[in-house]
Amino acid sequence: MTTTSVPGTQWRGPIEDGELRSLFEDAWGQAFVELDIVGRLRAHSLGWVTARHEQGRLAGFVNVAWDGALHAFLLDTVVAPAARRTGLGARLVAEATDGARAAGCQWLHVDFEPGLRAFYLDACGFASTAARLVNLMAGGI
């Protein structure tokens, strides 16, 4: 398989619902039905980072949510299958980190599946913590 080079990342880069939905579906292998993804990003996120193939096609994305003050949160970090293992994911996270820092955030949080531990801890520099969560849809708490 040949990968297309990805020149870089862009904080709050232009993005459309259809291309983001397609990236999610290609990367995660399942249909993504949420409507108005971009509208929700603009309304609720500190920012997001995009990366595009030289042809302009979306190659990567990460959303940066926040509490409006000191805490930012990475959500939906995704890289197109053809652009994986190129360092793009780490570049997306680095740009997101810079954007959160520039906004005055002191802490950047991320939750991830066990298989992504080396990526977030080693490649991106996150520290391991004892954070916990509750599944509200499963009747927790």
> Going across the major beta sheet, what is the strand order?
1-2-3-4-5
Percentage of residues in strands: 15-25%
How many strands in all? 5
Uncertain segments are 1-6
Radius of gyration over all CA atoms, rounded? 15 Å
H/E element order: EHHEEEHEH
How confident is the prediction overall: mean pLDDT?
Answer: 90
Write up this protein.
The protein is an alpha+beta fold and 141 residues long. Helices cover 30% and strands 23% of the residues. It contains 4 helices and 5 strands, in the order βααβββαβα. It has helices at 17-28, 37-44, 88-102, 117-123, and strands spanning 9-11, 45-52, 58-66, 71-79, 107-110. It has a 5-stranded mixed sheet with strand order 1-2-3-4-5. The protein is globular. The chain starts with 8 loop residues before the first strand and ends in an 18-residue tail after the last helix. Residues 1-6 have low confidence and may be disordered.
